[in-house]
Amino acid sequence: MRNDLDIIFSHFETGTAFLSAEPLGSGHINDTFLIRVMGDHPAGYVLQRINHFVFRDVPGLTENKVRITQHLLGQLEKEGVEELDRRVMQFLPTHKGPYFYCDKQGNYWNLSLYIPDSVVYETVSNPSIAFEGGKAIGAFQRRLSGLNPESLHETIPHFHDVGLRLDKFRKIVEEDPCHRAADAPDEIADILSREAEMRAFMGLVHSGAIPRRVTHNDTKIGNVLFGRNGHALCLIDLDTAMPGTVLSDFGDAIRSGANPGREDDPDLDKVGMDLGIFTAFAEGYLSEALAFLTPTELDHLAFGARLITYEQFLRFLADYLEGDVYYQKIQHEKHNLQRARAQLKLLQSMEKQYSEMCGVVSRLRE
Known about the structure:
By secondary structure, this protein is of the alpha+beta class. It has 2 domains: 2-116, Phosphorylase Kinase, domain 1 (2-Layer Sandwich); 127-365, Aminoglycoside phosphotransferase (APH), C-terminal lobe (Aminoglycoside 3'-phosphotransferase, Chain: A, domain 2), CATH 3.90.1200. The chain is built from 12 helices and 11 strands. It has helices at residues 2-10, 58-79, 127-144, 162-175, 185-193, 195-207, 246-257, 275-289, 295-299, 301-322, 335-352, 354-365, and strands at residues 18-23, 31-37, 45-50, 91-92, 101-102, 108-113, 118-119, 213-215, 224-227, 232-235, 242-244. The strands form 3 sheets. Strands 1, 2, 3, 4, 5 and 6 form a 6-stranded antiparallel β-sheet that branches. Strands 7-9-10 form a 3-stranded antiparallel β-sheet, with helices on one face. The chain has a two-stranded antiparallel sheet with strand order 8-11. Strand 2 and strand 3 form a beta hairpin.
C-alpha cells in the first residue's frame, strides 16, 4: 500500500517528497491517510480515497469542495482571521489540473493540507463542545451565505427530500420484498402517523419559503475540527457539501450530538435528547447564524431536529424492510431495525421537549 500511496501522492502539485503514510480517522465511507513528507513544512497532507459507489459524480464533488473552501478562505481574509491555514481545508490540484486523481483501479483520490495540533471529538461530552460545534457550523453557513447554491453540484440528488423517501417507504411496505413488515408494525405506524406533518414542512422547502443554501449535510461533531485549546477551527469532510437547508445541518448536529445514547443503542432507556446540550449548541449556532437566517428559518429551527431524526428513523426502517441494501454494515439480522427503534425513541424525546426547544430558540433570537 505504501508504494501505491507514494505513486498516487506524486500526481499532486506539492513540491515535496513522500516519506510515510498512516491511516487517519475512522470514517465508514472513504479511506483516509496522513502523508508525511521530507522536511519540516508542511506538517503533512491528507490523502483520501473517495468512495465513487456512494458519490457517483466525483468531479462535481471535488469542484464543490474547492469552490466552497476558496470562498471560505476569501471570507476569512476579509474578516482578518489569523492562522488561515488552520481555519479552512485547502485542496491541491494534480499536475494535470483537476483536484482529483483516478488510479489504474478506477479509484478516485484528493489531497488537502493537514492541519496539525488539532483534535476531533466523537461525542459531545459537555456544553462547551456543543457551543463550539454549533458556532463552527453557524460560521460555516454564514460565510457561505453569499455563495449561490445553484453554482454547486447536487452530488446526491434529493438527499433530504423526506417526501420522496416517504413515497419509496410506502412502496417498500406494500411490496414487503423480504417479508419483514410483520417485524415492525408499530414502527411502520409511527412513520405514517407523522407523515402529514413532515410533508407539510417539505412544502415550505419546495415553495422557497425556506431557502436553499450551501450546507454541509453531515454535521456530526466528528466533522468539526478543534484546536487543543478547545475552540473549534473549521468543518471537515466536505463530500456532502451542496445545496440544502440550514435546518438539516442544525437538526443533524442535534440528532447526533445531543443524544447520550448510541445511534443504534439496544438499551432505549439511554436514548433521549439532552436539553442542556441542545441549548448550548443553539447558543453557539445562533451567535453566528442569527445575522443571516430568515424569520421562517428561525421559526422552524427546532423542528429541524425532529425532521432529521424522523428522516433517519425512516431510512433505517426502510432499509431493514428492503433487506439492508444501503446500510450494509450490520452486526446482526435486525441491526437496522434496532437502529430505527433508537431513532424513534430519540424522536419521541424531542417531541416531549419540543416546547422547551422552541422556547430556547425564541429567547436567543430576541
